Amino acid sequence: MALQVAAQNTVVKYSSSRFSLAMTSFSLRPHPHLYQINTYVWLESLSSKLGRTILLADVPDAEWDAIAAMGFDIVWLMGVWRRSAISAKLDLENRCVYPAYTEALPGWIPADIIGSPYAVASYEPDPRIGSWNDIDDVRRKLHDRRMGLFFDFVGNHTALDHPWTSEHPEFYVQGSKNNCDPASFYKLDIPRGTVYLALGKDPYFPAWKDVAQLNHFSPEMRAAQLAELKKIAGHCDGVRCDMAMLQLNEIFEKIWRPSIGSTRVPATEFWADARKAAPELTLLAEAYWGTEQRLIDLGFSFVYDKSLYDAVHDGCIGNVHARLSAPVDSQSHFARFLENHDEPRFAAAFDKQRSQAVATIMGTLPGLRFYQQGEERGVKLRTPLGLRAIAEQPTDPELKSLFAKLFAETRNDAFHEGQWKLLTIASDNDGTGGNLVAYQWRSPADRVPKVWKVIVANLSGAPAQGRLQFAGQIAPGSDYVFVDALDGARYVRKGDELAQLGLFVRRDAYQAHLFDVGRPQ
């Protein structure tokens, strides 16, 4: 999927999804599936099951095979970088987190607290994870299975014990002795004297206690950060960029101008420079506040679609329709998710009754289809990021069955290479058609055999019905068969009726259809 991105009045062409290594080369298919893994917790779980310490290099091939078999294109190994001792210490001192830790790991001990993966002490593999050679071997294994490897890039801040804090304090936003509120600044004694480093923050929340705020207007810091990104790019295929919008010039200036004085605004955006520095790296942005399109324009292949998540979660059906009415080229850049490590688990956030409609929609839309390990079996307990392990969680058989059906269906090329189209629904007598969402995927014109998939979901808590309009896609003299992958039901409909009136559909509350459409043989 070649993209063309406008950045600083210069058109930069790049391939957002071409992965290349000396040993293999392949292309990431459009509308890929991503699988997020909490690496440290996963390795601890495997170690417990296998009765020995498992590093990344020791993960059995069967584990990678199982992920590939579910149809994933990307494995995001979250939290591979060296952990911060200060972050772990601060976490241990924060008794407010103890109840969540006890729920996730009853009987935990201080050694189980390892600090946040987003307080990066160094962009080197954490010793518990493995080595660069181990990472390169895993990347090779993933490529052999047609999957790419993603890591984290935390550009806004570093851990308080990152080497830069003592060696290059000028890389950070700083305060002074007279302006060093402990809630916002970290006092650090270094050979050249005492410095007061601003703590990183999202402007809508208190400062993060375990990270120091980088000065994104410092040319020297930017150069050093780009060098780190280029190093990472030699070992992976993409990065998920934490709080990416905080590095936009306008947003950084709005938050930090009082602390950085007359420092000039850079002539370019950091992310445009990052795109040029690592042109083969796929960039995924955690992004909010309406900054999504700006980040896409600067070179991101994918951005979080939190707006759609909120609309679906809150039952705002009109907002869902509006979001899906955007051009498919725009939607193809969105990362669609039901959960991630910052959100509650899907099985906990959505009533079981809603699961079929919601999971079917999020798993079949254009864009990056984003899953977190455990979601596919209905895990309810959210993993605290500072813990090294969690207790084994039960599987929900119904959700496991639902996701297995969705994964089996969406492996089909029609959901990746095909053409997506939002379908019009004409309300029937009761006027409930507006509660339905319907769209289709059709394989390319030159593809044999032809595949036509139609998805219909009722996002309301009451029955809804309407007529799907296929706008010239029906041959009037033919019969059509609709087979639902979710329940196996088979419907035969006359082409004349479909062409003149449309397909009548009725779904109970929060139910969905995932039709394979064909003609009788």
Sequence-ordered SSE layout with sheet pairings:
Blueprint: E1 2-7, E2 10-15, E3 18-20, E4 25-27, E5 33-38, H1 39-50, H2 61-69, E6 74-78, E7 81-82, H3 85-93, H4 98-104, E8 122-125, H5 132-144, E9 148-153, E10 157-159, H6 163-167, E11 185-190, E12 193-198, E13 211-213, H7 219-233, E14 238-241, H8 249-260, H9 270-277, E15 282-285, H10 292-298, E16 302-304, H11 306-314, H12 317-324, H13 328-331, E17 334-337, H14 346-349, H15 355-362, E18 368-372, H16 397-410, E19 419-422, E20 424-427, E21 436-442, E22 452-458, E23 464-469, E24 479-484, E25 490-494, H17 495-500, E26 503-507, E27 512-518
Helix pairs in contact: 7-9, 11-12, 15-16
- Would you tell me the overall average pLDDT? 93
Q: Architecture of the largest domain, CATH level 2?
A: Alpha-Beta Barrel
**Shape type:** globular
> Helix content range of the residues, please?
25-40%
Report the end-to-end length measured between terminal Cα atoms: 35 Å
Q: What's the CATH topology name of the largest domain?
A: TIM Barrel
**Number of domain units:** 2
Biggest sheet details: 8 strands, parallel, barrel
For the record, what is the CATH homologous superfamily label of the largest domain?
A: Glycosidases
Secondary structure tally: strands: 27
Q: Assign the CATH class of the largest domain.
A: Alpha Beta
Q: How do the strands line up in the largest sheet?
A: 5-6-9-14-15-16-17-18
Structural class: alpha/beta
Summed up, the helix count is 17
Q: What oligomeric state do the depicted chains represent? A: single chain
> What's the alpha carbon Rg, rounded to whole Å?
25 Å
Low-confidence segments, given as residue ranges, are 1-25
